[in-house]
Write a structure and sequence with these properties.
The complex is a heterodimer of chains A (about 200) and B (about 150).
Chain A: H1 5-17, E1 23-28, E2 35-40, E3 43-49, H2 53-64, E4 68-70, H3 76-86, H4 104-114, E5 122-123, H5 124-130, H6 137-145, E6 158-159, H7 172-181
Parallel strand pairs in A: 1-4, 5-6
Antiparallel strand pairs in A: 1-2, 2-3
Chain B: H1 6-25, H2 27-45, H3 54-73, H4 90-97, H5 103-114, H6 119-126, H7 130-148
Helix pairs in contact in B: 1-2, 1-3, 2-3, 3-5, 3-6, 4-5, 5-6, 5-7, 6-7
Classes of the chains: A alpha/beta (about 200), B mainly alpha (about 150).
Chain lengths: ~200, ~150
């Protein structure tokens, strides 16, 4: 016997509003393809591209606890801010973040990254230096590649020392799209490739 | 077996638990009972040590919810609930007594005698047949008797 969508939604909302979840998640559409977003009671903890929900659930369970449930209402604020961002109405995110599972240097780099303004570019080396380890550009590259909350933590604004886009966990076409949206680079004539190619964020 | 993320557990069991609750409390009360069952499961989920017998576990919770629902429906109580000496309801006492049994027998005994489920439902809860559930319950009862009557 199937549970009605209304009852299912009611349970998922109650679970979140009663504070019974270690992490809630939802999936939504965006101009750069479907996004997976997750939050703990402390704040947003994950955004991923080309979502594979079961893998993401396991990852959330390992990081935050087993009580992981899809609960759209818990992600309302994140969805709203991301929609505003993609519509060009928002340049800065006001969402609280939960980065507690990350190592201290990793977190320090992401703190610096969060300060790179909308529409501006920085380099891996500059970011490494501002986090106190000027020779750690390569490590910073790895940290950007594993950024748990891309878009909100704007690793797309980090480029190579020559200005080349270099790489992006979600695929270069997405990096390009985000930078064009922010007016950081001029649009190019080549169309965006299909969004269905597999990329790890 | 590992405990899966709650979403997996919920997806795997929600339909059959809902069907079970509808049979037990009727269509009108099934929605509330369903929500209450899985909210209670969430409250206990973080403390689970392993993922064995998750199905029996959720049926036990659902059964407890139906007992609460029946009790709630009852007009002013005319006869006292059967209570154990420490004031707990009989099914709670049975869960306590059966705690030393192997998990399958324990679940079968508690669901049969604590919650009055029939063997078909217990078989469903344990992922086995009605006959296997009957055997598990009677083997559990024999084991309890041996313990009580040396």
């Amino acid at each position: 016997m199937t549970v009605s969508p209304e009852l299912d939604a009611r349970f998922r909302a109650a679970a979140a509003s009663q504070g019974l979840l270690d992490a809630s998640y939802d999936l939504f559409d965006s101009p750069i393809g479907p996004l997976f977003a997750a939050a703990t009671p402390r704040g947003l903890c994950r955004i991923s591209f080309d979502p594979e929900p079961e893998r993401e659930e396991e990852r959330l369970a390992r990081g935050f606890g087993l009580r992981v449930l899809r609960s759209p209402r818990a992600l309302d604020a994140a969805r709203r801010e991301l929609d505003d961002y993609f519509d060009g109405r928002r340049q800065q995110f006001d969402l609280p973040l939960d980065l507690r599972v990350l190592a201290p240097f990793h977190r320090a780099v992401l703190d610096r990254l969060a300060q790179v303004p909308y529409g501006r570019l920085t380099t891996y080396g500059t970011l490494a230096a501002s986090a106190g380890r000027p020779r750690a550009a390569r490590a910073v590259g790895t940290i950007m590649n594993r950024n748990p909350i891309p878009i909100v933590l704007p690793c797309h604004r980090v480029v190579g020392s020559t200005g080349k886009l270099v790489g992006y966990g979600g695929g270069l076409h997405r990096k390009q799209h985000l930078l064009e949206l922010e007016g950081a680079i001029a649009g190019v004539a080549t169309p965006l490739p299909g969004l269905d190619s597999p990329h790890e964020p | 077996m590992r405990v899966p993320p709650f979403e997996r557990f919920y997806e795997a069991h929600r339909s059959e638990v809902f069907a079970f609750l509808r049979r037990r409390v009727g269509e009108g009360a099934a929605d509330d009972a369903f929500q209450e069952t899985f909210l209670r499961a969430l409250r206990g989920y973080g403390g689970l040590q392993h993922g064995n017998h998750l199905r029996a576990w959720i049926y036990t919770i659902a059964s407890r919810v139906t007992v609460d629902e029946w009790r709630r429906r009852r007009e002013p109580v005319l006869e006292p609930e059967p209570v154990a000496l420490d004031g707990r309801p009989a099914y709670a006492e049975l869960e306590h007594l059966a705690s030393g049994l192997p998990p399958t027998e324990r679940a079968a005994v508690v669901l049969r005698y604590g919650y009055d489920l029939d063997y078909a439902d217990i078989g469903a809860a344990l992922g086995s047949s009605a006959e296997a559930a009957r055997q598990a319950a009677s083997s559990g009862v024999r084991r309890l008797r041996r313990k009580e009557l040396p």
